[in-house]
Amino acid sequence: KEAIDDAFALDMAMGGSTNTVLHTLAIAREAGIDYDLKDINEIAKKTPYLSKIAPSSVYTMHDVHEAGGVPAIINQLIKKGVIKGDRITVTGKTLKENVAGAEIKNEEIIHPIEHPISPVGGLSILYGNIAQDGAVIKVGGVDPSVTTFRGKAICCDSQDQALELIDNGTVKKGHVVVIRYEGPQGGPGMPEMLAPTSKIVGRGLGKDVALITDGRFSGATRGIAIGHVSPEAAEGGNIALIEDGDEIVIDLPNRTLDLLVDDATLAERRKHLKPFKSKISSGWLRRYTAFAKSANVGGTLMSDEEFEERKAERQAQEK
Q: Tens digits of per-residue pLDDT, 233-278?
């Protein structure tokens, strides 16, 4: 678990892609490590943001390499006590020994631990009645002037529908674009939502339109883009209950994502929610769809027992 903690600490220090959360959780699960998504926020709170990289800044990974590279960043984090430097690595040496000579060569690109870009990491896990099991945002890619956002939902049951609404001008300032049924089950396979976020930012709406999805993003994504909403829509998560015009509040300092609709109304909507039916009818992708879990556990596969429980629940819903 320490190695997973350290991986997330480096991730936070560099404002890494939201995909790193998904993949690292999957690695932890496959290794038999019980890793709670909430632990990531605890790491974020104590890990300073040291290097902001494109698309969040003008600096590229090549610039980071020239400025001292990942070893220099790890060295800073060991000095801070955020990363445990005494663990043996594949080199036969400890992590601290591996990076002992790595120094920062350009403090504009890699900030020293004493003068970070931010005292907290570049990724954040949000919770609320839309994402009871969590959602992820790259806060390092959000304009610093945006700490909270309140807007009206405009709902799309696919990425293609969202692209159409953005292109034809239906999406305007003050909207929260909700893209659902694009998670591990719903996609299936959790496709990237790079095109919608790029179009929103490209139209100058990066500070004025938010996007939430049970799908995922590219490392090139920036703006108020919240992904990996769990439980996903295909699993019956509350993201499936959002309707056009509903108000949604995103609070980055408090790490919350909430739908301003009361529980009684949501319960009534749930009565009319149709059970998810996959658009894939055969092959290995169909099998993945049947066994896939939501993003909060890395989109990994459920056990036979969990599958039977899901199957029974869906059969009950269909009656």
A: 999 999 999 999 999 999 999 999 999 999 999 999 999 999 898 8
* 281 is a catalytic site residue: no
DSSP-assigned letter for residue 247:
E
Q: Where are the domains of the chain?
A: 2-98, 124-271
What is the phi/psi pair of residue 148, to 5°? -135, 155
Q: Does domain 124-271 have CATH number 3.50.30.80?
A: yes
Query: Over pLDDT 90: what percentage of the chain?
Result: 83
Exposed / middle / buried, residue 79 (Cβ in 10 Å: 0-12, 13-18, 19+):
middle
Question: Which residues have a Cβ under 8 Å from the Cβ of 55 and sit 6 or more positions away?
Answer: 141, 220, 221, 222
- Least confident segment among 84-93, 112-121, 308-317: 308-317
Sequence-distant (6+) residues with CB within 8 A of 25 are 35, 37, 295, 296, 297, 298, 300
Contact 293, 307 (CB under 8 A): no
Catalytic residue among 56, 218, 281, 303: 218
For residue 193, give both structure tokens.
Answer: 């939502």
Give whole-number Cα distances, 307 to 280, 293, 314, in Å.
18, 10, 11
Instruction: For residue 317, give both structure tokens.
Output: 């819903």
Coil, helix or strand for 64? helix
d(CA 308, CA 159): 30
Token pair belonging to 22:
């998904």
Assess contact for 37 and 293: CB atoms under 8 A: no
Q: At 296, is the secondary structure helix, strand, or coil?
A: helix
For residue 188, the one-letter residue type is: P
